[in-house]
Amino acid sequence: MRIEVKSYNNNSSLVSAILFFILGAIMFTNPGAMVVVISRILGGILILFGLYSCIKNYILVRQNSGVSAIPMVAGITCMAIGSIFFFAPNFVEAMVRFVIGGWILLSGIMRFSNAMQIEKKGNTKFVSLLIISLLLILAGLYTILESNLAFQTIGIVLMIYAALEIFGWLTSKSVVKETMTKEEKKKKRNKNKAVIDAVVISDDTTDKKDSKK
Known about the structure:
Mean pLDDT: 76
Number of helices: 6
Distance between the termini: 49 Å
Largest sheet: none
Strand content: under 5%
Helix content: over 70%
Shape: elongated
């Protein structure tokens, strides 16, 4: 039976890990700029969306008084939240910390589940994946719970997470390759055994014919 580690069954895991490593490196080398850029981008998008909703709803209400004003309220809310993002980078830092921490924690839980599945198959390399999953879970919890975690530290955590993911990807590929090799050898042995049995049966039949003569 072939072992398939669902979270590592394609190259997307490797690509995302590399992207996270690059993001972590940027956050580590220039954390202040990252806070401002992320904050202003999100804030600008929310403000523009809210402004668009307000203008559109205002025009519709002028044309038809029966139109609901809920989009206007939603637009004002978006502009208010966008303003907070735009003028309060610290808020964005906390939000990014929770999002990244949650992502790492979820990844760790998934890797732990994969390690348990591999352990049931009797593969010795499950220990490496188990250690990686536990480290990811600890890193995710630390990122979420540490309220004074600096943006630069988040960058370090991201790079560690990416490195663990890359190592886990390589390990899982090795596990799958090893399993496939064992299966191929087993099939080859079974095939050779079937050929030998066929030869033995053929010899027995020949001997019986000779004895009858």
